[in-house]
Amino acid sequence: MSQPHVCLIEDDVIMGESIVERFRLEGMQTDWFACAVQAKAAIKANAYSIIVSDVRLPDIDGDELFCQMIAEGCTVPPFILMTAYATVERAVSLLKLGVKDYVTKPFDISTLVQRVRDFMPPDLVYAESIELGVSQAARDLYRLVPRVAGRASAVLVTGESGVGKEVLARLIHRQASAESTIRPFVAVNCGAIAPTLAEAEFFGYERGAFTGAEKSKKGFFEQAHGGTLFLDEVGELSLALQAALLRAIQEKHIRRLGAERDTSTVFDLICATNRALPDMVANREFREDLYYRINTITLQVEPLRKRPEDISWLAKRFASSIAQRLGEPVKSLHPLSLMKMQTYAWPGNIRELHNRIERACLVSQADVLLPADIFPDQAETGTGTQFAMLPQGEATLVSYQETCERLYIEEALRRHGGRIQETADALQISRKNLWQKMRRHSIEGKGHISGKGLDELKAGS
What we know:
Structural class: alpha/beta
CATH class of the largest domain: Alpha Beta
CATH topology of the largest domain: Rossmann fold
Strand order of the largest sheet: 2-1-3-4-5
Shape: globular
CATH superfamily of the largest domain: P-loop containing nucleotide triphosphate hydrolases
Radius of gyration: 28 Å
Number of domains: 4
Mean pLDDT: 83
Number of strands: 16
Number of helices: 21
Helix content: 40-55%
């Protein structure tokens, strides 16, 4: 299965950005063009799943582009037009041309998303199953999944704690077979199994095999028969158990404790670790033969701090899923919250991000999550007072924008220690522009600028 690839043709920047963001949140790879000529060349060069085009374009109208490509004998994927001038006669004429559908502006983007989905091939995957992220690192990892799922004899997933190694393992499991919904996925936390129980847990036992064994029990190997065995934190296994597992993995036969004969078991093997197994092999803490047996192919999941594009994408997904679970409206993320999340190191990775968003959704009574809601342990003096100054109720757009701009500049100044040129560079504006905005918002003298920064500011005024 592959990710849907959409060609969007829209010359309105605000509309285009909104559609692209929503399509990408829905798991659709989107190429956006502002004119028909560029889009036409891209359509000929790429195998798009669908084309979404505005009718009124600066060079060639969308319906004219469609007619040109048909006349030239091009293979044109499903074509959806967006128009602000739809009438019954116009709609009929568009459909007669061969256009699949049209939407009338203004429209709810959710409606457009559903129209796009209706004309997608059924085997394409949407955001519900694309759980790795939207960053290039996540996309590159996702592209490897169909290549290894159900084909590699063993997959080793590496990465820091909390980066989503099990999420990747489950994705590989689902894509391994069309019948994956009925195939077992047995997840084992190797570090949580008591050494005295490990052999019984993995291999199972017969009734009466030891004191307390009142009935027979299948071990992890048998439970995973016909499906996937996921060994999380495989580096925590004892050397004695490593030897036993190696034989079972190689021969695909196990013997329960107290049994007289072997049992055949076949499964896909996925292992995961946050430890450096090569170093453990060198230190004789991990068997070399087992290491080479489990890493037929290694997939590295990058930490969240190295793929910042995924932070807001994941945070919004978490906020949405939490709201759905609680039966409440979805809380949005304030721009300053998004900025703060982008600069935070996330030592706990995705697990920490989920926990912080869940806590904020549970505790905050507001509709918008502020930095203090997500990072209560990092709240700065005066921050609560500043955020209390956000416009409440039905504020005008101008007043809200002005307040947000002031708070954003203050936060940027804090991050850069009050250094004016550095702050201006980060905001991608000139020193003079920053100085004018600071004067308009009365930011000077509020303690955000260091002494050196004040001297620099005065010198530049």
